[in-house]
Amino acid sequence: MGLRSSTVSLTRYKVNGKFEGSVTEAVLKGLRSFCITDIDEDDTEKSVGWTSWETPYQPDFSGSSFMLGTYMVFSMRIDKKTLPPKTINKHYTLAMEKKLAEDGRAFLSGNEKKLLKESVVQLLNKRIPATPNVYDIVWSYEDSRLWFFSNLKAANEELESLFLKSFQLSLIRIFPYTGAYLLSNLTDPEKDTLATLTPTLFRK
Amino acid sequence: MLDLALAYTRYRFLGNEFLTWLWYLVENDKYTPAAHGGDGNADAPASLQVGNRLVLENRQQEGLETITIKGDDAGLEEGILALRKGALVSEINLKYTLGPQQWTFTLKGESLNVSNLKFPEPTLVETRQDLEAATLDRIFMTEKVVDLIEDLYTRFVKQRLSPRWESEVLADIRQWIYSGT
To answer: What is the ipTM of this complex?
Structure first.
């Protein structure tokens, strides 16, 4: 679900740290360095990288197109090839029978079976296109706010890892503790109270 | 700041307490909008209502009991009964109205994540300039909801950490929970 969808999901983050030089240049460098790589023509199973929000299937960051007003808008794309287990099993069984016939043997060792299965998966991965999933991101640099338009745990984890690699800035997810500690303008005594807080019993 | 992985689990209760407080606030017409200025909507009347879904969790006894109330005109009495048994709100769907515009969204207590966020009205896009303007408008509309959540959460946290929590706020919430008995 993206920023322009009729219904969206949202995970909020605080960006920890600032760039030393030009923000636009630093972001552009990070986006280009970790831009999504197309894997449709090779045997790679998964690819994760940045793409442009306007043209997610043809990444283009030229002319600082990710700058929109005071926000930076771009997307993370995860391309993944998912082979049905039954398809793998069919091709693996055929490949095993062929190898046994060629070698004149009755069985293969455990290691041979493992290697054969890997090569079958590689071969099949080369033949199927990846399924792309695009997740939009809005980054307000000045107030260190970042919104990620998905609640999927795996996508959030990919974002946190890719963001750190690309920009050398970490993301802090906003959940009850971080929302209180980082966003609620707490005084030092309030922070001390938060540190020892225990659940309230609402019923009598 | 505590280790985040530990803090996520340790403070999960705080999110559910927030949503329970929020339900009390909305049901008792105690929501007052924040005094934001300069956004063109500063004087627009704002209101907050419970939408079509409320989920409560009871972790007081052994195991986990979940009570889900859904439907546009669903009665929330079951929810009050669950509160009396020690449950807390773990998920709430809200309708936020600001002037002529209305947003609906679901907030989860554990993560404070927003889901099913629906915006006031879609903008028609025909040209590239339209797309940029519509996207900026969508960001602006998202910001309204994020600001609302952050404002409400800050108010809750300030009350929750104050010495008044037990004697005033919690006393009022308990009065609401048991008012029908």
So the answer is: 0.90
